[in-house]
Amino acid sequence: MIRYTPEHLWVRQETGGATATVGITRHAQETLGDIVLVELPALGRHAQGAAVGVVESTKTAADLHMPTNGEIVECNAVLVDQPDLLNTDPMGAGWVFKLDAIEPG
């Protein structure tokens, strides 16, 4: 199941588990334009709404906000060297981080 946040992130809950994958929506990617830098979040627990990372484009920069309370357990390190994955495949290979122990906000 995929849900979308007001901050233009998508959250895909893995079937039967508390793990979810998070990325930016196609709308966010189109608004930002050519993405040139991704600052990935730190692993660990974060509160819903906290700014946990940054996406920079040739036009602007945008914070990545935690979509729910939980623990970031993995980041897509490929984005450091290939931030353009957020332009070419924001809903797939351009995922940003994974959450575990998802809690209601």
How does this model look, in words?
This protein is mainly beta and about 100 residues long. It has 3 helices and 9 strands, in the order βββαβββββααβ. The radius of gyration is 13 Å and the shape is globular.
Break the fold down into its secondary structure elements and pairings:
Elements: E1 2-4, E2 9-13, E3 20-24, H1 26-32, E4 35-39, E5 44-46, E6 51-57, E7 61-65, E8 69-75, H2 78-81, H3 85-88, E9 97-103
Antiparallel strand pairs: 1-2, 2-3, 3-9, 4-6, 5-8, 6-7, 8-9
Key features of this structure:
105 residues, mainly beta, 6-stranded antiparallel beta sheet, 3-stranded antiparallel beta sheet, 3 helices, 9 strands, 14% helix, globular
What structural class do helix, strand and pairing data support?
Answer: mainly beta
Measured distance between first and last alpha carbons: 18 Å
Shape: globular
Strand order of the largest sheet: 1-2-3-9-8-5
Instruction: Give the low-confidence spans.
Output: none
Rg (C-alpha, Å): 13 Å
Largest sheet composition: 6 strands, antiparallel
- For the secondary structure, the number of strands is 9
Helix content: 10-25%
Number of helices: 3
Short description:
By secondary structure, the chain is mostly beta strands. 14% of the residues lie in helices and 45% in strands.
